[in-house]
Amino acid sequence: MLSFKFTLLKSVSFPFFKYPTKTLISISPKLMASSWTCSSCTFINPNSLKPTCQICSNPKPTSQFSSSSKPTSNLEKWSCKACTFSNPYNLSSCEICGTRNSPFSSNLNLDDEELELGSKGVGNVFLPLLQKCSNSSTNNKRKIGDDSVDIADLGASRAFKSSNKKADDFVTVDDDTFDLGGSRHIKSAGKALVGSDETQAKEDSRTLKILSYNVWFAEDIELRIRMRAIGDIIQLHSPDVICLQEVTPDIYAIFQRTNWWKSYKCSLSLDKAMTRAYFCMQLSKLPVKSFGCKQFSYSAMGRELCIAEVSTQGDTPLVVATSHLESPCPGPPKWDQMYSKERVKQANEAVDFLKKNPNAIFCGDMNWDDKLDGEFPLPDGWIDAWTELKPKEIGWTYDTKANPMLSANRKLQKRLDRFLISLRDFKAESIDMVGTKRIPEVTYMKAKKGKPDLELPVLPSDHFGLLLTMSAR
């Protein structure tokens, strides 16, 4: 008789750092053979004979793909194109071989009503899967040498400059032709992206709006309904530039099918989005001179700086950058540093790269903790938009008290999301939080160990978004 021994391993969870809650991508054999991601600290380990994480000694996972979701009927399954295994519809990758389900399959091919009335509970898979945000193409990499480098050789456009002269720094530029929903195409002409008339700068307005939003990659909590709510926020405020964090391939595919998407140019093509577990993404209604990406000198979590150079009224240049800085997660040597050193270094690299621009905005999920990280590093002439415009308001964008969806979590109130700005030709008029209201008549069940499940309301995200409004001087 065979006997089995089971050992229960207790994993540590950290409120700042979050994992995608389902299988998100299919990993290439080369990547699977070269590295594996620790489910505790997220360090990307080389595939050596050592069975434990080099950082926290957590055991190497025995399987990258698992599911705890309940069986579904035959009508709720999709067949893997590689191995033909019938998978539950709530999984985006095959349980057997890891091949990703097409974003155009039936589980995403929904009309607006289906998006609103999506199944309650899109799955219970909790897969700590991380992948470094990398671009496979080397043709678009530009070395930054002693002189400034044009990100996309845009003629009249000024060049981005970097104060960091390391030879291994590079900027990646997407010169692809994007199909935004089928209604129109953004074509590469002289490496400058030119859109239709409806996406040109507003010629009758001197007001610009920039939205930054961590959309939360928790795909098991009413994903379609939450993304529809975020889309409603976008349609309500009609921001000129949108900076999103924690976008997954499924979230990308859902957004791409909406009507509001057709008014924007996107920094990532669908093909590139499908190769990443989660990522930052930028969209612009304004004419785009370039979309770029700069890798940080170090990130255990694959974080990077995403950059958009756009033209405003009168061809005034504006650079908008976003990032998702290193998440607090205990690490050696004292297991109390929470990646603060890395986060501070990333913040410095970002502002150093952007500070030569006359009009620059750096926004996103900074994961910033003033008690842990100190004051945010701001060069002369830069301001924190929230503290400047709303000095009497605390500005917590992650708040387990104000966000009832998080009320079952331990208390945590932080101003994680920020707008850092330096504007010569513009003036910041206002900054507001968005996504602070619950979605009517939508709830989810929160599992509590040793206690009955809790029914909690659903908000668009675990973060509140920030909307900056500014005007030309």
Which descriptors would you attach to this protein?
alpha+beta, Deoxyribonuclease I, Chain A, single chain, eight-stranded mixed β-sheet, exonuclease activity, DNA repair, 473 residues, zinc
Walk me through the structure:
With 473 residues, the chain is α+β, with helices and mostly antiparallel strands. The protein has a single domain, classed as Deoxyribonuclease I, Chain A (4-Layer Sandwich). It has helices at residues 29-34, 112-116, 223-237, 249-256, 270-273, 340-354, 370-373, 385-389; strands at residues 35-37, 44-46, 77-79, 86-88, 141-143, 170-173, 178-179, 185-189, 192-194, 207-214, 241-247, 265-266, 279-284, 288-295, 304-311, 317-324, 359-365, 383-384, 398-399, 413-414, 417-423, 426-434, 443-448, 451-457, 465-472. The strands form 7 sheets. Strands 5-6-14-15-16-17-21-18 form an 8-stranded mixed beta sheet. A 6-stranded mixed beta sheet has the order 12-13-11-10-25-22. The longest helix is centred in the middle third of the chain and has 15 residues, at 223-237. The chain is globular, with a radius of gyration of 22 Å. The N and C termini lie far apart (81 Å). Mean pLDDT is 73; it is low at 6-19, 21-33, 63-75 and 103-204. Keywords: DNA damage, DNA repair, Endonuclease, Exonuclease, Hydrolase, Magnesium, Metal-binding, Nuclease, Nucleus, Zinc, Zinc-finger. It is found in: Nucleus, PML body.
Summarize the structure.
A hairpin with a 6-residue loop joins strand 3 and strand 4. This protein is α+β, with helices and mostly antiparallel strands.
